[in-house]
Amino acid sequence: MLSTFSVSRILFPNIQSLGILTPKLLNLGPYTLDFTSSGRHMAVGGRKGHLAIVDMKTMGLIKEFQVRETVRDVVFLHNDLFFAAAQKSMANILMTGRYPYIYNRDGTELHCLKEHGAVLRLQFLKNHFLLASINNFGQLHYQDVTMGEMVGSYRTGIGRTDAMQVNPYNGVVALGQSLGTVSMWKPTSSAPLLRLLCHKGPVSAIAFHPNGHLMATAGKERKIKLWDLRKLGDEPLQTLPGNAKTLDFSQKGLLACQLGNGSSVQILRDLDGNQTYKTYMNHGMVKGFQIEKLLFRPYEDVLGIGHSMGWSSILIPGAGEPNFDTLVANPFETSKQRRESEVHSLLDKLPAETIMLDPAKIGTLKPERKKEKPTKQEKVAGIEAAVEVVKAIKLKKKTKGRSKPSKRTIKKKELIAKAKSPFLAQEMKEEEQVARKKQKTIEYVETPTSLLRFVRKKATA
Amino acid sequence: MAQTKRKSIDGGGGDKAKGKRGKPGGKKQKKGADARERKGPRLPNVLRKEVERLNPIEDEDIDSDEAEVYGRDFYEYEEELPEEEKRKNRRFDPVENLEYQLPDEFEDENVSSEDDDNDMGEAGEGGGEGDDDDDDDDDGRQGNTRIPAFEGKKKRNTNVVVSEAYPESEYNPTRDTLDGEGPVSIEDLLNPLHGKTGYSKLRKRIHHLEKKSVPTPAPLPKADQEKLERMAAYEKSTEELRKWEPIIKRNREAPTIYFDDDMDLRSSTTSDFKPRTEFEKKIASLVYDDQVKDAHLKDGSRLLELNKVSAEDERDRHNRMAKMRSLLFRHEMKSKHIKKIKSKTYHRLLKKDRLKATSAQSQMDPDAAKELAMKQEYERAKERMTLRHKGSSKWTKRIKERGIDVQDEGTRAAIAEQQHLHAQLTRKMNSMKDGSSSSSDDSSDEDDIDLYSPGSDHARAAKLLEKAKEKTHNVLIDDDDVPNSGVLSLPFMVRGLKKKNEAAAEEAKLALQEYESWSNPLEDSSGADNLKVGPPSGRMVFNGSKNKAPESSNKTKADNKMRSDNYYANSDSEDDLEPEENVDVEKDRSSDLYKDVNISAALLHEDSQNHNDSLFKNFGDIVQAPGPKTTHEVSIFAAGSWKKIKSGNSVDANGKKSIRPLESVERNQNLQERVDDLDEDSDADSEGQMVDGFLTSDPKDEYRLPSQAELIRQAFAADDVEDEFEKEKQEVLNEENPEPEKPTLLPGWGQWTHVQKKKGLPSWMQKEHEDAKKKREETLKKRKDAHLKRVIISEKLDKKAEKLFTKTLPYPFTSKEVFEQSIRMPLGPEFNPASAVGALNRPEVMQRPGVIIRPVEFEEVNPQGKVEDHKQSGKKQKKKNKSNKSKSGSGKIVTKVKTKLKS
Fold first, then answer.
1. Is residue A368 part of a domain?
2. How far apart are CA A134 and CA A173, in angstroms?
3. Are residues A275 and A403 part of one domain?
4. Pfam families recorded for this chain (chain A) (predicted)?
5. Would residue A363 count as lying in a domain?
């Protein structure tokens, strides 16, 4: 049996040549990656079950193990201590594991999230402590990782998809659909907040600009499109050619996409600041490398590429945010600081309801309900208006004493009463409804008649 | 004045002379009274008596008194003269002067004081009734009541003439009492007090009483009474409370209330401070020294004088300071030193750690390993030079001569150390000897060379193979010479031996072939980088040395040797040997031997070694040896070219025996194939790998299926995406704004069926339906995605998120837009100037711990100014709120007021 140790030796020999670090892995790939929010740690997951955590500062391996199951996705939770991996056993009846698991950094399995099913993509919402997943039946799950409670579980009805991305600005999850639609979801509603027809072919990848206003989508019809989420329109901001399986925005807004047959990377950049992206850099991988995942490393000018032969990182000048805020993410965090920040982030945890398309709306006046009752004043005003109308009617002059003043007054009174009557009837009706509602609530308290015979009678002494 | 005059007149004895009294003030009134009296009807005496009894203060009774006393009737209708003047009887004293003047002193005493009292007292009561006014305004009856009283008094005082037969007593009542007019009036009681100090006041009070002597009405029912009381109380209390309103309002509207500014600690702590201890007393005497106080009071110059310090004192102080400083410094140094001292265990652990680190380092890093080796070699060389351990130095010899027991401990320890060193070294030598007795000098040399030239792995490997070949050749050759005599020369024995030899030769040939195959990949990988795929150097050397001695290629012995070699080889190796025995040896070697070699490669090599050694062994042994059963493929990207190195050997139990060359060929082919494969489809390739690798399941189908499905989906998905989307949008719209139901008619309901058929739906129904439709269209138009074909924006309200919104517009705001604008402005220190931040997020109540919160005090508040304050924020509030007020305090006040009202 090949020990994992050998793999690690091959994974990290002491090559660090000119910023390009390209270790090869033993065909356990294609590899998917995830960075912690500070960019200090990286989790890699090989399709063939190879999971590892790497300290990116020292380029040292922290832990590496083989789960012997297909690994679909890996994602770090709130810090480098925990990560989740979407796994699936290799079509073996006896090994029925097809769930995401949560591991700690020592590789110990902490949780098996069976409710999620056979998950294709995982995303972690770090402000809300939610682990979002989409499984192969198109079910979207949100699980709170602090208390373990399942916050939301919805059948999206969009079929199997592995294009899933969280908008870092508002926590909304975007899912790509095979019909070219991108739908956005939140954990508290079963219907998508937004549906956007982006492509004519299936959507293969989605990426969000860190400011949350720009979305890039890639379709199988060999198009990459950029969308402004603040001003949604039928037409995208920009359409670029390219058949990308994976997209990623850097902190400074560079867009990395895979090009060609999957073995070259193109970096686009918004040079003029008017949201027109142009080619900035190109990087060709060795032919035959299948790029699985592109991910910019936060706070560094480095792009991580997970591919079929391992992972590589290339330098992209100007990609990362040069000035990190230690209160947000600290790449040089000590363990004490990490503990502190963990507690702080838990205290600052946002409830799931705060996820909405425009979080700036929170605290504003409640949007009006569609069907609101007219106020009393309005009702009175309505009645008065009707009465006025009636009063303004001039009665015809009639003969044979039918136009006597007494008759006229009677007639007028009748007319006014008639005008008022629909309003009054309406009012009555409403009152009745209220009364009925009240009755209903009372009735609910009582046990149904069919069960009355089981009710224990009170001792009547 | 008028009264006094009246008195004086009375004193003059003129009872009936009221009309003539001639005083302008009193006259009018008296006239009226008189007129009534005189002109009244004449009553029978009995009746009159009755009346008098009921109304004793009226002057009639006095008159009647007189009438009785003297048996005469005074009550005539026409009467010209007052009786005094008539002098009909002796009732009145003859008075010369009717205008009587009171003596001076009497007047001074009484009148003046009475007047004063009247002025003051009456004004106070608000009645405003001077005696004159009284006389003027009041009806005659009152005038009557008063005047006759005085008259009567006068009469009693003055009437000395009348005498009774018996002295007046309770057994002998006066006639008055007997007549029935006896009840003693207040005047009667009062009169004797006349002229006493409190009299006037008393009189006034009584007067007041009389004036108010209107019959008291019946009390109201209790409920009404209480109601009135409550009303009054309520009014009172509301008034009381209204007074507080502006203060309370101000406090309520204040953004912040302060409870901390009138804290005065000084007074509480230092006001009643008295020096108690000697030190305190001393200080106090110095501080409160008269001289100093004076100096403070006057000016600073005197203080300066007092402050003078002598040079000696200063020097002393300086010295003292220096001493203290040096002491401190020394103490500091000492503590520093102490702090540095670590425990024995700490050092032990540290040492352990260091050792571990170095060993790890040496394992990882070739340079470090080299350094370590150099160091050890240097030590060895030094030992060789000094030969300290031999005990041959002069000093040791002398000590031995003298006897070790006599020596002190230090020397003994030194000697012991030497001996220990000696033992160690000799043991090492011995172990070397019995481990590989055949190891010659050149092999050890070779060993050394190998050790220190990590780059020459290849050469070594090649060399090793050479040697192995040589050895097998030797064996083959050796087999040729057959013993000529003895049991072994017997024909069947010879035959058996031959057979054996043949088999051996076969195997040897196989081995040779294998060596050949081994050497090929090695040559291939000559350009490879620092990955150590070749067999490790150390073991090779030992093998080589062993192979050089063909005489000792006895099976068991070889095995043993291998074992012993393993001592030096690797502690990680799977044959578990006691590493404690030769720790130092291992330290010397193992780290050197395994520098960058990965372990599995080593293990593999071990297996191949086993092959080498056990040409004569049966293969079962080999199979039993636990080796990795995987094909280990390493692909390396270097210098832009692809190279694959097979660093493993599949040790398959069944495939081993016969088809070695074939297998090797196959492997080569395989290798090529794989490289090709990789170019085509790495996925499929890797799956193949997985199959013969450690993942036993066959995942090929697993991966294929979804991708096929994907392909199908891809093929058919994009047909009419837009139509699909349009449909979807319609669905959503229908769901969120459902279409109005079509009006339906029940046949015969409301109208006759034939009418229904003819007219169709009634117009109102149609209108209703159209209205609903229109309404729906309008709402659809209002949607955000109304003009967007490719966008659906859900307008569902999230009930769970409702709590995050503001329910109603907060108070000062009047429009939604303004409010939303205001909350958009952040409050944090990053967005606001420091001066504003404090005011913006100051808490509602500022209180310093330990400060007593006093109840609100009343103060005049300008209601106009308050509005202004409300708009201002921050610092102005602070000033305004200096007098501590709180809502709770005001509440207390309210309750207090209530309780007061109740009680």
1. no
2. 10
3. no
4. BING4CT, WD40
5. no
Asked, for residue A340, whether it belongs to a domain, the answer is yes
- Contact yes or no for B794 and A365 at CB 8 A: no
Task: Tell me, yes or no, whether A396 and A339 share the same domain.
Answer: no
Q: Which residues of chain A are within 8 Å of residue B728 when distances are taken between CB atoms?
A: 181, 195
ipTM computed for the complex:
0.75
* Cβ contact B686–A287 (<8 Å): no
Contact B796 A221 (CB under 8 A): no
More confident residue, B99 or A350: A350
Taking phi over 0 as left and psi of -120 to 50 as alpha, with beta for the rest, B216 belongs to beta
Q: Which of A304, A328, A356 lies at the terminal end of a domain, its last residue?
A: A356
Do residues B130 and B118 make contact, with C-beta atoms less than 8 angstroms apart?
Answer: yes
Host domain of residue A7 = 2-356
Average pLDDT score over residue span B719-732? 84
Residue B467's closest CA among B555, B560, B539?
B539
> What integer pLDDT is reported at residue B601 of this predicted model?
41
Q: What is the tens place of the pLDDT at every residue in B375-386?
A: 888 888 887 777
Place of tokens 């091959």: A10
More confident residue, B77 or A348: A348
CATH code: domain of residue A146: 2.130.10.10
Q: Is the pLDDT of residue B235 over 90?
A: yes
Q: With pLDDT > 70 as the criterion, what percentage of chain B qualifies?
A: 45
Q: Are residues A248 and A201 in the same domain?
A: yes
* Cis amide prior to A30 (ω within 30 degrees): yes
- Regarding whether A255 and A183 lie in a shared domain, the answer is yes
Instruction: Tell me the pLDDT tens digit for each residue of B498-550.
Output: 888 788 778 777 777 776 666 555 444 444 344 333 444 334 434 433 344 44
Instruction: Using an 8 Å CB-CB cutoff, list chain A residues near B600.
Output: 2-3, 5-6
A369 belongs to a structural domain: no
**What is the rounded average pLDDT of the residues A153-158?**
90
Alpha carbon B192 to its chain centroid, in Å, reads: 87
Task: Name the H helices within B784-886.
Answer: 816-824, 834-840, 863-871, 875-880
Residue from B567, B625, B579, B628 nearest B602 by CA: B628
What pLDDT shows up at residue B373? 85
Torsion angle of the four alpha carbons B701, B705, B711, B717, in this order, in degrees rounded to the nearest 10:
180
A313 and A237 together in one domain: yes
B717–A180 CB contact, under 8 Å: yes
Nearest by Cα to A32 from A243, A339, A310: A310
Q: Tokens 């030079």 identify what position? A: B385
Out of A220, A308, A365, name the one closest to residue B805 (CB): A365
Q: Are residues A326 and A178 in the same domain?
A: yes
Question: Would the CB atoms of B633 and A26 count as touching at under 8 Å?
Answer: yes
Mean pLDDT of chain B: 64
Chain A, chain B: beta-carbon pairs less than 8 Å apart? 196
Task: Please list every residue in chain A whose beta carbon sits closer than 8 Å to the beta carbon of residue B725.
Answer: 179-181, 195, 197
**Residue A18 and residue A131 share a domain:** yes
Convert the pLDDT of each residue in A187-203 to its tens digit: 999 999 999 999 988 89
Residue B783 identity (one-letter amino acid) = R
Mutation choice for B interface testing from A9, A17, A203, A309 by most B CBs within 10 A: A9
CB contact under 8 A, A353 and B722: no
pTM over 0.80? The answer is no
Q: What integer is the mean pLDDT of A370-375?
A: 64
The partner residue sitting opposite A91, judged by closest CB among B531, B697, B820, is B697
Domains in chain A, number: 2
Residue B863 has pLDDT above 70, yes or no: no
CA distance B335 to B331: 6
What pLDDT is stored for residue B624 in this prediction? 44
Q: Answer yes or no: do A20 and A53 share one domain.
A: yes
Report the residue of chain B nearest A263, measured CA to CA.
Answer: B679
B441-452 vs B537-547: helix crossing angle, rounded to 10:
160
- Of the three residues A325, A356, A387, the one that is the final residue of a domain is A356
Between residues B16 and B390, which one has the greater pLDDT? B390
